[in-house]
Inverse folding.
């Protein structure tokens, strides 16, 4: 059980110290992954970016991921009954949301060059892993040196699936019975845009001071 997301991040950072000397970037999954990534970034002294990707859901079940999209790219796993028109409309909707998120949370932040670097994708927990799976596939197109998934808690099926796609998966707690990420936190209140901006600004200050 973790007290809150920053407590989880502090404990996760201990397992990620081996990446401290590598040229890397922490990719925080908004919004819940940002406080976790903040604690890790403080320890590793690595830059942080937000993961601006979202899953593309199936038309009959939006929670079932059939692909993922970023502001510049997307991928789809072909499914019967999923039309080009549906995909195009979903891309427009998703990218509109991502642009708004980018404008609100990192308007003045230029993206790092991912090529050859270790990318640490950090979230507060992983239930199905489908969204992160989509993120991995999109990030691979940027030719990173290594992709590492890190989270305080994750379901066993998600870890097994992601281990096939990422170079490494590091999770502190893989419970035999998984009831949802929030069940493993004492404080799992929703993270606001203001909190995300607070953590990102704090990290900018720390990197300038360092």
């Amino acid at each position: 059980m973790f007290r809150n997301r920053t407590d989880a991040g502090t404990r996760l950072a201990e397992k990620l110290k081996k990446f401290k000397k590598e040229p890397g970037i922490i990719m925080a999954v908004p919004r819940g992954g940002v406080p976790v990534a903040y604690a890790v970034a403080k320890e590793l002294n690595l830059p942080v970016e937000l993961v601006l990707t979202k899953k593309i859901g199936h038309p009959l079940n939006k929670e079932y991921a059939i692909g993922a999209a970023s502001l510049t790219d997307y991928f789809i796993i072909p499914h019967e009954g999923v039309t080009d028109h549906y995909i195009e409309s979903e891309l427009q909707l998703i990218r509109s949301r991502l642009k708004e998120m980018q404008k609100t949370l990192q308007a003045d932040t230029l993206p790092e060059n991912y090529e050859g670097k270790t990318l640490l994708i950090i979230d507060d927990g992983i239930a199905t892993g489908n969204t992160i799976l989509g993120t991995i596939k999109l990030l691979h197109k940027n030719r990173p040196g290594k992709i590492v998934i890190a989270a305080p808690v994750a379901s066993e099926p998600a870890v097994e699936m992601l281990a096939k796609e990422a170079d490494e998966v590091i999770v502190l707690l893989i419970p035999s019975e998984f009831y949802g990420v929030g069940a493993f936190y004492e404080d799992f209140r929703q993270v606001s845009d203001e909190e995300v901006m607070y953590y990102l600004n704090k990290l900018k200050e720390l990197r300038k001071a360092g």
